[in-house]
Design goal:
Number of helices: 12
Bound molecules: octanoyl-coenzyme A
Structural class: alpha/beta
Number of strands: 10
Radius of gyration: 19 Å
Shape: globular
Helix content: 40-55%
Oligomer: single chain
């Protein structure tokens, strides 16, 4: 029995599988989804037995956006005063990786939520879009920034100005998703990929994630320097000694996370 109202959380070995579960609203993101997700991800990040998370939705929808019914009556004072949905940024502070496994609609806040994850695996049924303009608003959870960084200005601008959706193949060509898998295999494939990541030395996983993320926050020379410092730092870990010894001795590494 899940302790959460709007998500299901399951541990598959070292992988935490989080499934958005508001089928009646195509997994639209309301305040309860945010609270549930943040609590589940904090528990995941703090649990040493867990190495990688998968965030998924249903076959029909990863998430069809922020909950329009919850937002419709809100005015500027409430939205600005409560810094509405800024809590989602906390998700990007999770130190262990999160894979978004997207089937069906990932629209508006749903697309933005997927883009906050470390990478997106797409089912062949996935459809991505930022249709907020059709509601006379705009992306508010980072879509204008992360989509532009992922697919470039021309495609991002066309998508936010027209609200058109992009299918899985176009998304892969554009660099928004890492791979496309058949819809029926999506969750298993994502869990398998997450299991591979969870099998790596934990400090190396955190460092690799952190340095790729730095590419979005800094210029090239500072980014390369940041990478090199983290690379040097990993030579202070027991797992580096073990990893290189294991290679030389032709055996798998046995990690201590130290
Ligand atoms: N919010 C609330 N309810 C929704 C949402 C949503 N985003 N999307 C779907 N639903 C509900 C529908 O109202 C419907 O409920 P009901 O059965 O009670 O009428 C149920 O889900 C099923 O939806 P449909 O009947 O519409 O299903 P279809 O298969 O016909 O259509 C679509 C599927 C195309 C996905 C369609 O539902 C749709 O266009 N949905 C809205 C997509 C959208 O506009 N998303 C952007 C929302 S705005 C946003 O995300 C802003 C993000 C930034 C917020 C940050 C603030 C700071």
């Amino acid at each position: 029995m899940s302790q959460y109202e709007t998500i299901l959380v399951e541990q598959r070995g070292p992988v935490t599988l989080i499934t958005l579960n508001r089928p009646q609203a195509l997994n639209a993101l309301n305040a309860q989804v945010l609270a549930d997700l943040l609590a589940a991800l904090a528990a995941f990040d703090a649990d040493d037995s867990q190495g990688c998370a998968v965030l998924t939705g249903s076959e029909k929808a990863f998430a069809a956006g922020a909950d329009i019914k919850e937002m419709q009556a809100q005015g500027f004072a409430e939205m600005y005063g409560t810094n509405h949905f800024s809590g989602y940024e906390t998700l990007t502070k999770t130190r262990k990786p999160i894979i978004a496994a997207v089937a069906g609609f990932a629209l508006g806040g749903g697309c933005e939520l997927a883009m906050m994850c470390d990478f997106i695996l797409a089912a062949d049924t996935a459809k991505f879009g930022q249709p907020e303009i059709k509601l006379a608003v705009a992306p508010g959870m980072g879509g204008s920034q992360r989509l532009t960084r992922a697919v470039g200005k021309a495609k991002a601008m066309e998508m936010v100005l027209t609200g058109r959706m992009m299918g899985a193949e176009e998304a892969e060509r554009a660099g928004l998703v890492s791979r496309i898998v058949p819809a029926a295999d999506l969750v298993e494939d994502a869990v398998k990929t997450a299991t591979t990541i969870a099998g790596m030395a934990p400090l190396a996983v955190k460092a690799n994630k952190e340095m790729v993320d730095a590419a979005f926050e800094t210029g090239l020379s500072m980014g390369v320097q940041f990478e090199r410092r983290l690379f040097h730092g990993l030579f202070g870990t027991a797992d580096q000694k073990e990893g290189m010894a294991a290679f030389i001795e032709k055996r798998p590494g046995a990690w201590t996370g130290k």
